[in-house]
Design goal:
This protein has about 250 residues and is mostly beta strands. It folds into two domains: about 15-90; about 100-245, Jelly Rolls, CATH 2.60.120. It is globular. The protein contains no helices and 18 strands.
């Protein structure tokens, strides 16, 4: 029986891995693995210093098993006291045709955003032609407030279809209000900078080449002293790319 597959990571502390071997753990089929990440040139590879599952603390699949070089989502198994890893398979292309990836964009360095509630464009993922896509974005941002005005300060993110001048929203979401924005960083203490990360994955169907932008903004109410996003650096990385469906 083939394993159940997931096209986007389940909720929780999951991360992508590459299976390196099949092992026996106390009579149970298990796998060793290494964490993988997306590099700046748009290719995936083993993450230097990333998490690993070894023979003494391997990963165990929910359904079926893996072979070498399969990809999976992994997390530390809470029920095993962190001594084992849970593994869920990543979907392959299958008989319906291959998935293509591209449109990678990332800011080269940290920069600031407007603190008056206006939107700042951070990056653009270009969808090359007609079709249905998943747009994947990781947004890393920070903020600092001198006064909160009775509410926390939020740095928020949203995707914007710049070609058609519409926000990218889930089906049935209705009009765009503050509740449609994804919180990236929440400032709840004055005088202290707070960093945060949000992962956004949205399905987009287009009729031709389309630019999808990542916008960030600061919430109204608090008095902001600084806010911005993280480019490629030690404090985080903001990036985006597309996955075109067959």
């Amino acid at each position: 029986m083939p394993p159940m597959t997931y096209r986007t990571p389940p909720l929780g502390e999951w991360f992508p891995v590459r299976v390196t071997d099949a092992v026996d753990w106390d009579g149970v089929d298990a796998n060793t693995f290494v964490e993988v990440e997306l590099a700046g040139d748009g290719t995936w590879g083993d993450k230097v210093g990333g998490r690993v599952g070894e023979e003494l603390n391997p990963g165990i699949a929910l359904i079926s098993s893996f072979v070498e070089d399969d990809y999976a989502f992994a997390r530390s198994a809470p029920g095993a006291g962190g001594l084992l890893w849970e593994l869920l398979p990543v979907a392959s292309a299958g008989a319906g045709g291959s998935h293509t990836f591209g449109g990678y964009d990332a800011p080269p360095s940290d920069d600031t955003i407007a603190t008056d509630g206006t939107e700042t464009t951070i990056l653009t993922v270009t969808l090359p032609d007609a079709g249905t896509y998943w747009v994947h974005v990781v947004a890393c941002a920070y903020g600092k407030c001198s006064a909160l005005g009775g509410a926390a300060g939020y740095v928020k993110a949203i995707l914007y279809n710049a070609t058609d001048s519409v926000y990218v929203q889930p089906a049935g979401a209705g009009g765009v209000g503050d509740y449609n924005w994804q919180v990236v960083a929440a400032v709840q203490v004055t005088g202290k900078a707070v960093d945060g990360t949000a992962v956004i994955r949205m399905p987009v169907t287009v009729t031709g080449e389309t630019d999808v932008e990542l916008h960030l903004k600061c919430s109204g109410g608090p008095t902001w002293t600084e806010a911005g996003y993280r480019g490629a650096g030690a404090d985080g990385m903001t990036y985006g790319f597309y996955e075109k469906l067959p």
